[in-house]
Amino acid sequence: MKGVKRNCFILLLWLFLPLTSLQAYKIGDSVDTTIVQSLQLESGKIAVISFFASWCNTCRHEIPQLIKVYTLLHNEHIDFIGVDVDKDITKGKAFQSALMIPFRVVDDTDHRLITQFDPVGIPAIYILKGSKIRHIITGGVEKLDSELHQRITAIQ
């Protein structure tokens, strides 16, 4: 009987553990050094990392607002990085071109980066200072440009 209870506990743990997102980055976490290197994050610099995809209608709406904030704030102290999670790079590149994204975009076709961040959904924006996550914005945000501008200027 003891072995049955133990096996049931292990089965329940195995079933529900993925729901806890133990690996997801949270505010205050420092990202792994492999992410710092692959995204070329600089110490002391603010990085705005935006995860998006061509199939995401909310992303299509929010990227122009992100570009607006980029136009106002990008400088030697703030870096904007897009992470396109399209599996089909042709669709991803066409989407990036259609929206005329002016900042650097990393194509994450193998989902290596998004798996490490593990957001609850996309669009997802992470604001970092150096390698430390200061803010996370996920899902559709009505006035993303205002919220993003406010959060970035608060940590400058």
Care to describe what's here?
The protein is of the alpha/beta class and 156 residues long. It has one domain: 3-Layer(aba) Sandwich (Glutaredoxin), CATH 3.40.30. It contains 6 helices and 5 strands. It has a 5-stranded mixed beta sheet. The termini are far apart.
Topology of this protein?
Elements: H1 2-16, H2 33-38, E1 46-52, H3 57-73, E2 78-84, H4 89-98, E3 104-107, H5 112-117, E4 124-129, E5 132-138, H6 144-155
Parallel strand pairs: 1-2, 2-3
Antiparallel strand pairs: 1-4, 4-5
Helix pairs in contact: 3-6
Give descriptors for this structure.
alpha/beta, Glutaredoxin, 5 strands, 156 residues, 42% helix
Taken in chain order, the helices and strands follow as HHEHEHEHEEH
Main structural class: alpha/beta
Annotated CATH homologous superfamily: Glutaredoxin
| Poorly predicted spans | 3-22
Return the CATH architecture: 3-Layer(aba) Sandwich
Quote the beta fraction.
Answer: 15-25%
